[in-house]
Write a structure and sequence with these properties.
Layout lengths: L28 H30 L23 H36 L3 H4 L1 H18 L8 H19 L1
Helix pairs in contact: 2-4
Amino acid sequence: MPEDHDWEAYKVPPTRTPVPERTTSVPNPVTFVQTVFSYVIDAPVTFVREWIERQQAKNKTYYYHQKFRRVPDLSECLEGDYLCFFEAEAQWRRDRMVDQEIVEIVRERLGACKQREGPNQFQNCAKEMELLKQVTKAYQDRYGDLGYHGNARTCLMKQKHRMIEERKAAQ
């Protein structure tokens, strides 16, 4: 690289950018509005937001892994204990949703196995088919024939009648 540069081809930028001179002594209204907005609206909102984020960072809660405590079954509630009835009903609904998801997951696994295996699905997916049969039978035994408006009380009565029939059949 040569020591002498061609100063005409590669001009050196000026060392300082010239500042435009003010022609008036009146302050710019845009600057005034921006400053007022910054101090009146933006600063308090930013302060509150950062304070809330600091409080939330201290105790993080993960809502996608919410765990409910198990409550007594409807058969364990005392007569007239409506709070216990309500909690048992909510627990029953959660259990029903979990059981529905279990059936759906097993069904999806069987569908994926059938898709993967193709014509050999009957011999290679026999385990998944048997598992789906067991899961759907258990779900049907517990929640079948309850309908959309089924609740914990009707489910309990259904299980009670099924147990009575099984005792009669055993004798």
